[in-house]
Amino acid sequence: MFASLSRAARRRVLAVSAALLVVCGMLAWWLAPFGAPVPSGSVTFSTGVPSGVYQRYGKLLKQALAQDLPEVSIQLTDSEGSQQNLARVASGKADFTIATADAVAQYQRERRPGFERLRGCARLYDDYVQLVVRKGSAIQKVQDLRGLKVGVGQDGSGVRLIADRVLAAAGLAPVRDIQPVSMGIDTMPRLLERGELDAFFWSGGLPTQAVQDLSERFPIRLLPLDTALVDRLHDVGRSTRHYRSALIPADAYAKAQDGRAIETLAVANLLVTTAEADDDLVEGFTRTVIRSRDRIGSQVHPAQLVDLRTAVYTEPLPLHDGASRYYRSVKP
Fold first, then answer.
1. Looking at 238-242, 247-251, 317-321, which range is the least confident one?
2. DSSP notation for 119-185
3. Which residue, among 48, 21, 17, 215, has the nearest Cα to 134 in the 3D structure?
4. Tens digits of residue pLDDT in 202-231
5. For residue 146, how far is the Cα from the chain centroid?
6. Which three-class secondary structure state does DSSP give residue 322?
7. Selection from 273, 279, 271, 288 nearest residue 324 by Cα
8. How far is 118 from 106, CA to CA, in rounded Å?
9. What are phi and psi of 176, to 5 degrees?
10. What is d(CA 286, CA 96) in angstroms, rounded to the nearest whole number?
11. pTM as predicted
């Protein structure tokens, strides 16, 4: 039929068809979303005990996320620490959290509910084990804690996990050979100051504000945890392989260290979510963690150590697909 039309008629049909194609194209462009999908909705971030680094970091990260992901509402919840954080995320009670690598490995080894769902977004900063005593105390090594009242962290914390292991590596049964006191960093410094504790364990970024504040008002010192003790931890195997020998710099707690670096052990913190978390949300979350490092680090010193070059290493957790997409996008 088209061939039987006159030349002028054919030109008119072609012109109308071209105009229709332009209109359809403009309509499709108008209806299509602009750019990448924008994450939205509400998520829960499980942090830590009041005055601990997890909680302070979480509050500042929430502010950064409000700018970068304005359609996402972030709810922060306190927790006892790494072990409770992992249980919350694995069970769906929280969407994101921070936990130490040794606590993650322990959770996996015990095949606790939802362990196979857990995924890593970023390696953040290292926690340093800090064993705090009064400056005039006769306690010189871990073995001297026998029979004493020792703060070991709350039951669901990473502090409790690592305190029990350090005590065992030093030849002390965590329940029989000491008087364990299950308290968090929001309570233990005050108990030590009042003489209700002889020592307490803390595992956190440097400096931890609660320990810093205690050192400013009360004479304390840090007990060394030498490489031989770390070697004994490594001999246990499994999740203890995530510990490494480290030094607490001499200026971390200037009044508590008398200008000396202190031997200890360190373990990495991981930003954790689940495999089911939305890829776009996880990509945006991870991007904000990396980009906000200096801003958050100006108030929470450990955050300064978040590094794009190492953030991708979330062992023992597989990397979430959304986080992987972010790291590929910034790879030189």
1. 238-242
2. EEEEEEEEEEEEEEEETT-S--SGGGGTTSEEE---TTSHHHHHHHHHHHHTT--TTTTSEEE---T
3. 215
4. 999 999 999 999 999 999 999 999 999 989
5. 32
6. helix
7. 279
8. 13
9. -85, -40
10. 11
11. 0.84
